[in-house]
Amino acid sequence: MNLFRFLGDLSHLLAIILLLLKIWKSRSCAGISGKSQVLFAVVFTARYLDLFTNYISLYNTCMKVKALPHLLAPPAGGGAGG
């Protein structure tokens, strides 16, 4: 396994979790662009589509399965603002 890929995946997953915790705790997504989050979700969902066609390793599959729900989770409060 490539150590740099592993560290990159962990830091990416941590960043997503921290972002979701910030949104959940503040009950607001003020300061976070909705369009940016949609594009982020589209890019990483497209990147992870090979999960259904190519088996690389158990680690790779587990990281993708754990990351996708976090990428697609709706923001707290429904994003209506206010």
TrEMBL record:
Major localization class? membrane
Q: Which residues cross the membrane?
A: none
- Cellular compartment(s): Cytoplasmic vesicle, COPI-coated vesicle membrane; Endoplasmic reticulum membrane; Golgi apparatus membrane
Q: Which Pfam families match?
A: ER_lumen_recept
GO BP? protein retention in ER lumen; protein transport; vesicle-mediated transport
One GO MF term on file is: ER retention sequence binding
Keyword annotations for this protein?
Cytoplasmic vesicle, Endoplasmic reticulum, ER-Golgi transport, Membrane, Protein transport, Receptor, Transmembrane, Transmembrane helix, Transport
Q: Would you name any one GO CC term?
A: Golgi membrane
Q: Which InterPro entries match?
A: ER_ret_rcpt (IPR000133)
> What membrane topology was assigned to this protein in its record?
Multi-pass membrane protein
Q: Among its keywords, does the record have Cell membrane?
A: no
Q: Which family does it belong to?
A: Belongs to the ERD2 family.
Q: What is this protein called?
A: KDEL endoplasmic reticulum protein retention receptor 1
